[in-house]
């Protein structure tokens, strides 16, 4: 497996987690303090698009790492739970890094 697969997943896991935390803060401002409705809308739309990209990268990583369906589902759902993606990303990185090859195929003869 190429390192870029893991790198893409890690980047999107962090971006998705940060956007979810920002969205939670916006929701508190909107419903708790009756302010920021427009910002909440923009952040929710951005998070939705970024979450779809995260799902594609998580699926790509899980298929290349040959994970069972339950594990793939857990990794995908971690993007919906605030702060969970940080912990799941760290565990995934530790598990997948030994499978990563730095160099392309060794057919350079």
UniProtKB/TrEMBL annotation:
Q: Where in the cell is it found?
A: Cell membrane
Span-the-membrane segments of this chain are 12-33, 39-57
Main site of residence? Answer: membrane
The protein's superkingdom reads: Bacteria
- Keyword Disulfide bond assigned: no
Keyword Methyltransferase on this protein? no
Q: Which residues form the DUF3817 domain?
A: 6-93
Signal peptide bounds: none
Annotated membrane topology: Multi-pass membrane protein
- Recite the UniProt keywords alphabetically: Cell membrane, Membrane, Transmembrane, Transmembrane helix
Q: Which NCBIfam families match?
A: integ_memb_HG
What is this protein called in UniProt? DUF3817 domain-containing protein
Q: Which organism is it from?
A: Streptomyces virginiae
Output the lineage of the source organism.
Bacteria, Bacillati, Actinomycetota, Actinomycetes, Kitasatosporales
């Amino acid at each position: 497996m190429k390192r870029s697969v893991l790198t893409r997943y890690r980047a999107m896991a962090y971006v998705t987690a940060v956007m979810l935390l920002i969205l939670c803060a916006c929701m508190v401002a909107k419903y708790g303090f009756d302010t920021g409705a427009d910002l909440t809308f923009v952040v929710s739309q951005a998070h939705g698009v970024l979450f779809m990209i995260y799902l594609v990268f998580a699926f790509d990583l899980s298929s290349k790492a040959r994970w069972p369906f339950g594990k793939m589902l857990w990794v995908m759902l971690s993007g919906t739970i605030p702060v969970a993606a940080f912990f799941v990303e760290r565990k995934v990185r530790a598990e997948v890094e030994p499978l990563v090859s730095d160099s392309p195929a060794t057919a350079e003869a």
